Amino acid sequence: MAELGVKGLSVLEVFSLFEGSISSENEPVGLILCLPFNDYAKSKSRSGALRDTAAAQPEGANSMFFCNQVIANACGTIALMHVIMNVNRDPTGPQCPGFDLGPELSRHLDFVEPLQPSVRGLCLSNDMFLRRVHNGFGNLPASMDFADEPVTVAEPEPSTTARSKRKKAADTDGDAAAAADTITQMLDSAFHFVALIPFHGRLWELDGLRADPTDLGTLPPADTKPWYNVALELIASRIDLDNPPDLNLLAIVPDPVPKLTKTAAAAEAEAAARELRHEKELRAQYEGERIRANFNYLPFYHDFLAEVAAERERSDVVARAIEEGFQAAEDKTK
């Protein structure tokens, strides 16, 4: 979010779906759920039963920001946009006083506000600022990009997609079993991001692969049960707790640093000072991990191995690894 120019928000990873795993001292403005695409598709029927379809659309809900995912490989960025673009839009929901959307996203929002969700998705994919930030968090920033393949905006049907891809692969390669295994591996390794936010007293799921926001029902009063505990229960109801998938849940919360800085200025606020140092250490750690994940180590490996070979100092382990690598490459070409 810092790369996007957003101020006043922070991200916390949620490690449990049980009530109390999210602190009430820093109420989140939204949740981002990441889970395997196959498990996401299976949860559709369960989530449908939770919708309050009989209730009329609440007044003011049409002011919610929502955009469709019209290209592949963009669900994470779109889920994040669904949360931050709706911060402070609902005066009855959780507020973030220090929130600032930043100049670039403010410009983007002003442009896409009157457009339809599908057109907003096209604008997002063609915004060079968003492209640069999105691509900057890939493992290979030089080659990673928003995919050019269009995505149909509708309820995803992975089983139908898998069957069609299996048939095409079988017709091309003449090996239906191998093609089926390939498609299964693709679906098993794919993940999908969706956002959950409270808006005008109701819980909403914002998923760019669906045509519209999904109304998940009325929220109880905040002093009775916080909205995020309702969301945790809903997520738990969608998955098999006996065999849970590899999911990740992020809470978008107000940035605690300004408040901690102000509190730590008091002479007696040692606990706040320690928490502030911990928060800054975490952010430095995350930045280091991001840099290492994005760095292209291939030139270093190439020059290092070339230098070792020139000095004839290769160990048996290195020599064996190189030989196995050449053998694997040769096997692939056969």
UniProtKB/TrEMBL annotation:
GO terms for cellular component: cytoplasm. Residues 1-254 form the UCH catalytic domain. It comes from Catenaria anguillulae PL171. The record marks 207 as: Important for enzyme activity. Residues 153-173 are annotated as: Disordered. Keywords: Hydrolase, Protease, Thiol protease, Ubl conjugation pathway. InterPro entries: Papain-like_cys_pep_sf, Peptidase_C12_UCH, Peptidase_C12_UCH_sf. It holds the Pfam family Peptidase_C12. Belongs to the peptidase C12 family. One of its GO terms (biological process) is protein deubiquitination. It is an enzyme of class 3 (hydrolase). This is ubiquitinyl hydrolase 1. Its EC number is 3.4.19.12.
